[in-house]
Amino acid sequence: MKKQIYIICLTIFCGLLIVGCSSDNLGEQDNKNETEQVKFNKEIREFYEPIVLVENEDLKISAISVQYLNDYGVIELILENKSNKSVSISLDKLFFSCIETEAQISCDIPPKSSSNEYIYIEGINSLEDFNDKIEGTFNTLNTIKDKYDFMFKG
Fold it and tell me: Residue 47: how many CA atoms within 13 Å on its side-chain side?
């Protein structure tokens, strides 16, 4: 009888020990996820004020942040169409310190409206790449000019 009680107590103790260990592993996983999230947030640089790249009576284009995400970069823009016509905007390359890099944006902005859009850039190795001078040309339809050159430093 004492052996059976001893075996039952030992079994319960081992069961609690196993459950306790698996709970510790879950805590470690939560800490790992929090660390990865913090690392992700460090890969985004928001500007104190939007950087105006283009502005005239029809159109305003401003950069509001730069991001590095798994081997490519992103520039977040606010595009404001001040005209009475729909405006199409595109871009296919940027220059980082005079080195050509593929970049993509293509969008249509309805009349008298604004939109958040993103330039996707290949070949970015880190957020530090945005510290270089960035130059490009927006191609547009239904605006005063067909092309708008811009330059800024992220």
Answer: 18
Q: How far apart are CA 27 and CA 39, in angstroms?
A: 19
87, 142 in Cβ contact below 8 A?
yes
Query: What are the pLDDT digits (tens) for 93-144?
Result: 999 878 888 999 999 999 999 999 999 988 888 888 888 888 999 998 887 7
Residue 113 φ then ψ, to 5°: -145, 175
Residue 124 DSSP SS3: coil
Closest CA relative to residue 51, chosen from 25, 26, 77, 20: 77
Q: Is the CB of residue 50 less than 8 Å from the CB of residue 106?
A: no
Output the pTM of the full model. Answer: 0.69
